[in-house]
Amino acid sequence: xxxxxxxxxxxxxxxxxxxxxxxxxxxxxxxxxxxxxxxxxxxxxxxxxxxxxxxxxxxxxxxxxxxxxxxxxxxxxxxxxxxxxxxxxxxxxxxxxxxxxxxxxxxxxxxxxxxxxxxxxxxxxxxxxxxxxxxxxxxxxxxxxxxxxxxxxxxxxxxxxxxxxxxxxxxxxxxxxxxxxxxxxxxxxxxxxxxxxxxxxxxxxxxxxxxxxxxxxxxxxxxxxxxxxxxxxxxxxxxxxxxxxxxxxxxxxxxxxxxxxxxxxxxxxxxxxxxxxxxxxxxxxxxxxxxxxxxxxxxxxxxxxxxxxxxxxxxxxxxxxxxxxxxxxxxxxxxxxxxxxxxxxxxxxxxxxxxxxxxxxxxxxxxxxxxxxxxxxxxxxxxxxxxxxxxxxxxxxxxxxxxxxxxxxxxxxxxxxxxxxxxxxxxxxxxxxxxx
Amino acid sequence: xxxxxxxxxxxxxxxxxxxxxxxxxxxxxxxxxxxxxxxxxxxxxxxxxxxxxxxxxxxxxxxxxxxxxxxxxxxxxxxxxxxxxxxxxxxxxxxxxxxxxxxxxxxxxxxxxxxxxxxxxxxxxxxxxxxxxxxxxxxxxxxxxxxxxxxxxxxxxxxxxxxxxxxxxxxxxxxxxxxxxxxxxxxxxxxxxxxxxxxxxxxxxxxxxxxxxxxxxxxxxxxxxxxxxxxxxxxxxxxxxxxxxxxxxxxxxxxxxxxxxxxxxxxxxxxxxxxxxxxxxxxxxxxxxxxxxxxxxxxxxxxxxxxxxxxxxxxxxxxxxxxxxxxxxxxxxxxxxxxxxxxxxxxxxxxxxxxxxxxxxxxxxxxxxxxxxxxxxxxxxxxxxxxxxxxxxxxxxxxxxxxxxxxxxxxxxxxxxxxxxxxxxxxxxxxxxxxxxxxxxxxxxxxxxxxxxxxxxxxxxx
Lengths: 436, 462
Hints:
The complex is a heterodimer.
Chain A: H1 2-30, E1 40-48, E2 54-63, E3 66-71, E4 81-84, E5 89-92, E6 94-99, H2 129-135, E7 139-144, E8 152-155, E9 157-160, H3 167-170, E10 178-181, H4 185-192, H5 201-231, H6 243-252, E11 257-262, H7 265-278, E12 282-287, H8 295-300, E13 304-307, H9 325-331, E14 336-338, H10 349-358, H11 363-368, H12 372-378, E15 395-398, E16 409-414, E17 417-421
Parallel strand pairs in A: 1-4, 1-5, 6-7, 10-11, 11-12, 12-13, 13-14
Antiparallel strand pairs in A: 1-2, 2-3, 5-15, 7-9, 8-10, 15-16, 16-17
Helix pairs in contact in A: 5-6
Chain B: H1 2-18, E1 43-51, E2 57-66, E3 69-74, E4 85-88, E5 93-96, E6 98-103, H2 142-147, E7 151-156, E8 168-172, H3 178-181, E9 182-192, H4 212-241, E10 247-252, E11 258-260, H5 271-280, E12 285-290, H6 293-305, E13 309-314, H7 322-328, E14 332-334, H8 353-359, E15 364-366, H9 377-386, H10 391-396, H11 400-405, E16 423-426, E17 437-442, E18 445-446, H12 452-460
Parallel strand pairs in B: 1-4, 1-5, 6-7, 9-12, 12-13, 13-14, 14-15
Antiparallel strand pairs in B: 1-2, 2-3, 5-16, 7-8, 8-9, 10-11, 16-17, 17-18
């Protein structure tokens, strides 16, 4: 009884806080003007372009939120805002292709192993300070994924770290939709511990197969209906719309980028076989600690990996993780990204990239692993991930060589607008009005 | 593979179980390390930049190692014995092996597999009689992974889930067996007061201590019980030394003989209370783990009440008490600096703690607080440099500072004649992520830079 009344009070209080927070926070967030889209010139820094080498004492001209010119010198209007980057390093904003921040712990809909119709966007908490802390580490774009409890989890949301703006303004416009798959220990533990299916790797893949077969039948009934309508059959009745089967059908139709949490060499091969069986493509294996054992096979499929430089041993399927995984995979032709999967590591992916140079990657390969390659995994590499003309002006400016232990972010620009500036007092944010 | 570990673990446990009595407590600051002198070859490192830590940087220097110790150090002209194996380290950086001030090395293999974990006896909160050396798995795959990045010594601590989870050991990351690697057993005792030790999952499964009040009261009672136990032992010893030859005229035993007026029955031995005595006597330090300001104050009061010798640990969110921490004069094991700041703290509030403490003259040391990735210890220090710590202070916080804090600075923490030859050689700044460690020496013996992971690399990298 006492417990209930306590809980009741907590609930009331939470509700009250949530409402009052809305009342105060909402206007301050929505009243923000979006990116000002001025002309901006970043001058004097060492530019790490990612795609065309290093430009010493170079300049970047930003017009209307896009990179309009980059080179030793650029033509920019005289009234352009100048950011002096003399003695500093300028590189694209960092891209994290595996993150679960800003979801307020709503990461896993762990009630069924097949939940492709969960939309992470529905849980996206745009006020989460973790977005700001990652921004302060140079991150401009993140893929917020469903967790790994389910064989087929929910659909991801891609964000730009415009902390201080509203929810819709933070969502990456036009980014393709990704879906999260998982495999191995997590799904079998989550459902096996409840005495359910799956509790083995056999069960894991079986529930996936069954789901895709059901989705095929669903697609077939809709195809039949569409054909009848096309023929002019006015009596044809539409099959029931089912969000779950619709989402599975979208996988089979190739509409979603498939992102698979997977550790073990044999499981990469099983996942590939399953993708062949049902005719969808895999975009990337995430974590992928044993990719180095079957790197040629992963490369042959055009599948990327999103991995950590050195995590290992935290569970049995992570036991064979080695820090040379990235290098061996890359030398076999695999596209490699370094990701965080952690609200800590996402703040210092530059350090992770420096570390991977210690384990066999060149500077250019390491830089790509936190910029252009994760952009490819997310499907936004035509928009971000390098300092190239026409791309979004998502840029991080560092006080020293960024791929090192001790580099600090000075400024971060997204779509040509400064969102973080270390020299500013308090939180260093430019678009954030603190709620009193 | 796992089976092999479990068997090895069982063997270690058996061996350790035979060592019943903990070693007598050495005075803090003067630990005699349990070190077998290695009868190895004489090695000279020539041409490197020597970061001696205690007497500056020597460019193009020479270090000579003999019988496990540094026997000569100096500039290019330093005499090299004719029988020495000379290793040319021109262009490289030579520095003392790094000391990690908190790890769980040897207590875990696979984090998620309970059978390979011996970090915490969670059955009770007051467990000072747990000794990590009883579980220390010398053959762990994690130690060779850690040491090839230049970490040569470490504190092995039990997990932080109990207020008093047991006692730390100081290890060397190489040795013929656990006996050689556990260089100082029961070197210190963690006292954790962060709130994470509360047993407050829910009211339904409530268990004492459910709150910080409970934690503090339970700790106070434990120390009072230990004081009482101590008094009983003292009283017994006093009686015993007062003489026992007189016959007691009043008392007869059941056979009608006169009883000896001896000291009586000794107090029943209590391992738990016995374990607390060296700490109550101030002979060994308590490692006080706190994060928030309120916990720091409560725990310090408790420590003062019982006159405990304190090393502070974490102080993660106590930026508001920096001056007070400095005023106590206590050393601080700082970190993990990768801990998230609170929502009202600036993004760099935790990153800059080491710099803020050092600026106020606090002696700091770094710890990985890890096992699998303890090899990344120098990078945390490097990151702290980014946030204002001087590179010299950062390196001290990995070498001489922890050596002094743990009382092993006679043997470790700097490149000096007479100190143990625990040395790392790298191709650059020891704190930078891109730097490759090229040689590691422990007790003057070169450690092969191989481990389970390099073997897998070599198997698959074709």
